[in-house]
Amino acid sequence: MANGTTMTAQKTRNKITQQDVARLAGVSVAAVSLVLGGKGRISPQGVKRIYQAIDQLGYRRATTSPPVTLSRIGLLLPLDCAFSAGLLPELANVLQQAGFSVALAYSTLDPADVLAQTEALLAQDARGIIVCGKLLSSRPETLQALNARTAARHVALTGISAHHHPGPVAAVHPDNALAAHMAADALLEQQHQHIAYLGGENHSLIRAERLGGLSVALGKAGVAFSPSLSFPCAETFDDASVAATQVLKHNPKVSAILCDNPTVLQAVHHALANRLQAHKWRLFSRRIALTGFGECEPSVKLQLPLIAVSHNAIATRALECLRHQLEGSLLLPGDSRLTVAPAFL
């Protein structure tokens, strides 16, 4: 009798549909489905209304197997970091495709804030945490504390940086030196020996790594690297255009330019195509080979040569490193698995 009553009650509840829930919550059926599946981006207010409607109606999702709880990976992101912002969509997608749910936390560079946001992710039962971008430049003692807190809970910890990072958090990073070496090799094969480097700030580690790769490539070809052909400039279209004009005006032997980022690449291309090529001076009538670093769809459409480590490649490698740790493997700074090779796009 008791069993019959339970079955009847369950049957009645199952007659309530997602359409009923959506109607009462004032949202679409798709929104209800996404919330129930733990996917998509629904506003907190919408999620609250959906769960209120589910509770009120007594809705229960039909299932033939026990519910599956996804392992959660926490992403600790810095505020105002272009590298992390550009990486986030692909990183979240790669993790979700691998069956993980994703929790986000944003932090300033203040040590107390970094640790507080880490604790917030750990409180959500994250099995792994990925620390991104500028946060890896936090004080060593802060990163050591982060290491200790995750290790105590058997939580995997991996970083993602735009350049090589010595630690103490093992961080996945692109091989910037190899990228410049590959770009220089391609230009040397085209008989370019006077290669300038344009863009990046003087203190940029990414720029320093690429200049190192350029120097090595030139040295192997018997060409001396000249620091005078390295020109820092802000990552703006106007600044790069002005800098390109100065480079060519004062360095008549330069026949190729490596551009630090896609903004500089597009600015130099525009300057050559629309101003320098039309200049009366013979100085600006020569052909200049360009190569840029980084992912950029507009540059690809312009058929400008780019060399980069894609966001997908970085995210995929970070996932692999997390899995190594989740399986009990140790991952230390300097491990070869942390370095991701570039490719021409």
UniProtKB/TrEMBL annotation:
Keyword Metal-binding recorded: no
HTH lacI-type domain boundaries: 16-61
Example of a GO MF term: transcription cis-regulatory region binding
InterPro entries tied to this protein: Cro/C1-type_HTH (IPR001387), HTH_LacI (IPR000843), Lambda_DNA-bd_dom_sf (IPR010982), Peripla_BP/Lac1_sug-bd_dom (IPR001761), Peripla_BP_I (IPR028082)
Pfam family, one: Peripla_BP_1
Keywords: DNA-binding, Repressor, Transcription, Transcription regulation
Domain (HTH cro/C1-type) ranges: 13-60
PROSITE patterns, alphabetized: HTH_CROC1 (PS50943), HTH_LACI_2 (PS50932)
SUPFAM superfamilies the record matches: lambda repressor-like DNA-binding domains, Periplasmic binding protein-like I
Protein name according to UniProt: LacI family DNA-binding transcriptional regulator
Phylogenetic classification of the source organism: Bacteria, Pseudomonadati, Pseudomonadota, Gammaproteobacteria, Enterobacterales
